[in-house]
Structures are given as structure tokens and as C-alpha cells.
């Protein structure tokens, strides 16, 4: 896989808390935790931690790749949210501490969703922050191998992460047929979706 290119309104903290509270396994997550406190939703554990500046203020922000905890007191996932589901939690660091800007269950492939080409372990996907962008990359498939890279940028008007670029390569390992997707989601009439509205299952997307 080629190296990935890495990518407020007053009601925002209240809305973030309300939305998160309605998700399975998420309990009492403050949208503005105290400095040094990194909230992890109940029933999830950290699989990867990535620090880097997402909003251009010179401070390191933080992105956590989470996976459902197995056993113990972890809540059971619903039918449409399997126990091997992954999620991404993004926090922006400000003068008063950390602020949640995204909680996106499903944007990373689940541990059993990538087929023999993906592996399913934490080493089989990449979360990177570079030049102010967040990049997610993974490989999936069996006979047809797919490499996917999604790049997100911080939207200061909405205090959110939005998809700006998609790059994927699909190869039929028997016939050798290849298909490439290279989309700039900031141009034309194409929607510019927030990370919470997306799922790994949507990619590669149609041309």
C-alpha cells in the first residue's frame, strides 16, 4: 500500500454529549474533559493512539482507535453493531483541556470484516496525522484485494472532521483486473460528509 496522505458554535458541547449518550456503550462522556483526562466510552478499549495537530493551533490533538472490549462488564453490542466493531474517537486540545470533535463507530473496519487480505489485527490498519489531516488506511478482500485510504480535514466552522479525499485500488488477483478510485470530496456537487456519517463498509465507493 502506498503511504497515506494524512489528513463552534455554543450548542456544540451539549449536542456532542447528547449524541454520544445515545450510542451503545457510551455513558457520561463530557464534551470538554479536564486537561490530561482522555475519556474512553464504557465497553471500549484503546487499540491505537495517535497525537498530532489537526486544527493548526500548534497543540497536539489526539485520535483514539477503539475496539469493543470482550467479556467482563462490557455492554453487549446490538445486532447492527457487532462485538468486534471498531470506532474512532477524536479530541481537540485547547487551553481548557480536551474537546471531543468526533465519535465514529464503524469508520474503521471491524476485526472480522476485512477477509484474509486484511488480517483484522491492530497492525492491519493505519491511523495517521500529518500536515493537519487525518488519514485512515486498510486492506481488505480475498480474491479481489482492496486498498483503501480516506483523508479527513478539520472544519473549524462546525468543529468537525470531514472527508476530503478517497483513494482506493481494487485488484482481482486471478484475472489481474484493476480498478482505481481517486476522489476529491471537496470539489463539484459531491457531498462533503462528516466522519460520523460514514462507515468502512461504504468504501471503495462508486466512481
Give the ordered list of helices and strands.
Answer: HEEEEHEEEEE
Question: What is the helix content?
Answer: under 10%
What is the residue-averaged pLDDT? Answer: 78
Rounded to the nearest angstrom, the radius of gyration is: 17 Å
Annotation field: number of helices = 2
Secondary structure category = mainly beta
* Gap from first CA to last CA: 20 Å
Number of strands: 9
- Poorly predicted runs are 1-35, 71-80
Task: Give the spatial strand order of the biggest sheet.
Answer: 5-6-7-8-9
Tell me the fraction of residues in β-strands, as a range. Answer: 35-45%
- Please tell me the total number of domains: 1
Major sheet summary line: 5 strands, antiparallel
Shape: globular
Amino acid at each position: 500500500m502506498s503511504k497515506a496522505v494524512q489528513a463552534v458554535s455554543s450548542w456544540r458541547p451539549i449536542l456532542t454529549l447528547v449524541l454520544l449518550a445515545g450510542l451503545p456503550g457510551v455513558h457520561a462522556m463530557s464534551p470538554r474533559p479536564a486537561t490530561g483526562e482522555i475519556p474512553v466510552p464504557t465497553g471500549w478499549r484503546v487499540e491505537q493512539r495517535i497525537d498530532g495537530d489537526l486544527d493548526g493551533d500548534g497543540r497536539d490533538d489526539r485520535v483514539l482507535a477503539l475496539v469493543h472490549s470482550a467479556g467482563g462488564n462490557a455492554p453487549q453490542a446490538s445486532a447492527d453493531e457487532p462485538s468486534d466493531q471498531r470506532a474512532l474517537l477524536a479530541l481537540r486540545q485547547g487551553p481548557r483541556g480536551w474537546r471531543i470533535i468526533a465519535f465514529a463507530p464503524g469508520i474503521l473496519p471491524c476485526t472480522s470484516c476485512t477477509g484474509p487480505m486484511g488480517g483484522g489485527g491492530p497492525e492491519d490498519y493505519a491511523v495517521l496525522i500529518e500536515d493537519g489531516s487525518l488519514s485512515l488506511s486498510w486492506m481488505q478482500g480475498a480474491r479481489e484485494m482492496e486498498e483503501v485510504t480516506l483523508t479527513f480535514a478539520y472544519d473549524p466552522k462546525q468543529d468537525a472532521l470531514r472527508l476530503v479525499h478517497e483513494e482506493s485500488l481494487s485488484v482481482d488477483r486471478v484475472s489481474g483486473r484493476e480498478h482505481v478510485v481517486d476522489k476529491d470530496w471537496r470539489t463539484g456537487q459531491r457531498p462533503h460528509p462528516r466522519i460520523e456519517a460514514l462507515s468502512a463498509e461504504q468504501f471503495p465507493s462508486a466512481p
